[in-house]
UniProtKB/TrEMBL annotation:
Keywords, alphabetical: Membrane, Transmembrane, Transmembrane helix
Transmembrane segments annotated in the record for this chain: 12-32, 53-73, 85-108, 134-152
Organism per entry: Pseudomonas cremoricolorata
Keyword Transmembrane: yes
InterPro entries, sorted: Cu-R_CopD_dom (IPR008457)
Pfam families membership: CopD
Occurrences of domain Copper resistance protein D (ranges): 48-149
Keyword RNA-binding appears in the UniProt entry: no
CC annotations in GO: membrane
Protein name: Membrane protein
Length: 154
C-alpha cells in the first residue's frame, strides 16, 4: 500500500492544482477583474495570468500522466484490467489535455498578438474563446473528479 502512496498523492495534488486553478480563475478572478478593471487593463492582466497558470498546468499534466501510468500498472496490471471509473478518468483526461492544448497553442498566441498590437477588440474576442474553453475544461475536470472520488462504474 505504501508503494501507491507517493504516486497517488502526486496524482491528487496535480488534479487539485489544475482543476482548482480553473475554478479559481472562472469563479473568482474572472468576475473580480470584470468588475474592477477596464477592458485593456483586464486583457493585460489575463495576458500575464495565463502563462503563469499554464506553466503549472504543464507540470500538472505531466505529473498526472506519469503518476497515472504508475498507478494503473502497479494497482491494476494495466489499462485492460483497470476498473471502468479509471478508464473514464483517462478518457476525460485525454479530452481535457486536448482542450488545454487548443487553448495554449491556438488561442493564447492570438491573445498575445492582440495585446502586442493593442487591438482590444481582437484581444477581447480571444479572451472570450479562452474563457469558454476553460469553462468546458472546468466542467470536464469536475466530472472526472466526481467519477474518481465516487468510483462510479458506468
Amino acid at each position: 500500500m505504501l508503494v501507491h502512496a507517493l504516486p497517488y498523492t502526486l496524482h491528487v495534488l496535480a488534479s487539485l492544482i489544475w482543476v482548482g486553478g480553473m475554478f479559481f480563475a472562472w469563479m473568482v478572478l474572472r468576475p473580480a477583474t470584470a468588475k474592477a478593471l477596464e477592458g485593456p487593463a483586464r486583457l493585460r492582466l489575463w495576458g500575464e495570468v495565463f502563462p503563469r497558470f499554464f506553466g503549472w498546468v504543464w507540470v500538472a499534466v505531466t505529473t498526472l500522466a506519469i503518476s497515472g501510468v504508475v498507478l494503473i500498472h502497479s494497482r491494476f496490471s494495466g489499462f485492460e484490467t483497470a476498473p471502468r471509473y479509471v478508464q473514464w478518468m483517462i478518457g476525460g483526461a485525454i479530452v481535457m489535455v486536448a482542450v488545454f492544448l487548443r487553448i495554449h497553442a491556438l488561442l493564447l498566441p492570438q491573445l498575445r498578438e492582440a495585446l502586442a498590437r493593442e487591438d482590444w477588440a481582437a484581444g477581447a474576442s480571444a479572451l472570450a474563446r479562452i474563457r469558454r474553453m476553460v469553462g468546458i475544461n472546468l466542467l470536464l475536470g469536475l466530472l472526472v473528479v466526481a467519477v474518481a472520488s465516487a468510483r462510479w462504474s458506468f
